[in-house]
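Slide 14.
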Amino acid sequence: MNIGVGRRAVIDRATHETRIHVELQLDGSGRADVRTGVGFFDHMLEAFARHGRFDVTLSCDGDLHVDVHHTMEDSALALGAAFDAALGERAGIVRMGDATVPLDEALVQVAVDLSGRPYAATHFAFLGERIGEAPTEMVSHVLRSFATGARLALHARQLAGANDHHIAEATMKALGRALDAASRPDERLLGEVASTKGTLSA
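Slide 15: predicted structure.
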């Protein structure tokens, strides 16, 4: 079930590997109720919601007896799909946004374009193989999965950092802030789409 009304969306996604329910309100206050069974990932999604000022409810029952991959990947796909649905025709929004976020020694820049075309480029230099129970390689994979579901272009790059948790958390905070900026209504557009081709949904 996919429902998108008034910059709010509800997504249910079920496979043999995961069962996911997502509720997203773009014009929220940063509240998050996230339960994926992966503590570090929950923390990252909570940071994303808080700094994007999105209200997010997300639950995932995944095959954690295998590993965390499907849970993190599918949750990011579903959250991205909710973002896509909540944007509707993408008329009247700023469209592009970026944020550079520090967290102690870490500094990460994220830029997004709500173009309707999924693409992700990430550049990180993690020092270890895991953060909690999550492989560090999943940070980039989550971003790519979210960009695919949300149908947006996303660039994320680490500018500084010596602590993997700080790098990952700064990334999710920057993503939230960049998306908040890009999804804001622009009164100067008078409800039109910020594109010379006249659509961001085709």
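Speaker note: The radius of gyration is 16 Å.
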